[in-house]
Amino acid sequence: MAELLHNPEKIERAHEELDQVAHGNEGTLQEPDIARLPYLQAIVKETLRLHPPVPFLIPHKAESDVQICRFQIPRHAQVLVNVWTMGRDPSIWPDPGSFVPERFVGREIDFKGRDFELIPFGSGRRICPGMPLAYRMVHSILAFLLRSFDWKLEQGVRPKEMDMTEKFGITLQKATPLRAIPMKVRL
C-alpha cells in the first residue's frame, strides 16, 4: 500500500481495472477473477521485486565446486542469495529504484522460481512452501483493500514526500509504518 500511496496514479489505474472486472460480477471479486486483473498482478510482482518478504533467501551449501557466471564457488561454501539487491540491479531492471508495475504487464515473468530475476520466494526444490497460499492471499487482500476503502495520506503529506525507508531485519518492513485512518467505504 505504501508504494501505491507514493504513486497515486497507480491506485487509479488499479481501481479502473478492479471496477471493470467487478462490474461484471455484480460488484464482487472472486479468486478466479485474479487471472483477469493483469495490472493488479503486476503491482504484486513489482512490490515483491522492490520489497521482497526477506532480504536473503535461506542459506545453501554448495555440494560441489561450481562456476556461476564469473564466480567460482568452492564445494561446501555457504551461499546466500540477496534477493533485495537482485530486485534493484540496474543490469536486470531499468530504473530499478522506481515503482513501475507496467514493467510486468504483458510479460511472462513470474515469482514462482522459473524466472531468476524475480525470486522472492526462492526457486527449485527449496522454494518457500507457503508461496501458493501467499500468491492467492496477497492478490485477494490487495484487491479487497483497494475496492473497499479510499486510500489517502495524512493531511499535509504529499505522495513524493513519503518516507519509503525500509527497516532491515529477518523480514523487511517500512521504517515508518503507514497509519490507517477510518474513512467512508469505497464500494
UniProtKB/TrEMBL annotation:
Its cofactor is heme. Signal peptide: none annotated. Heme binds at C128. The keyword Transport does not apply. Keywords: Heme, Iron, Metal-binding, Monooxygenase, Oxidoreductase. Belongs to the cytochrome P450 family. The keyword NAD does not apply. PANTHER family: CYTOCHROME P450, FAMILY 76, SUBFAMILY C, POLYPEPTIDE 5-RELATED. It comes from the Eukaryota. This is Cytochrome P450. SUPFAM superfamilies: Cytochrome P450. It comes from Eucalyptus grandis. GO terms for molecular function: heme binding; iron ion binding; monooxygenase activity; oxidoreductase activity, acting on paired donors, with incorporation or reduction of molecular oxygen. Transmembrane segments: none annotated.
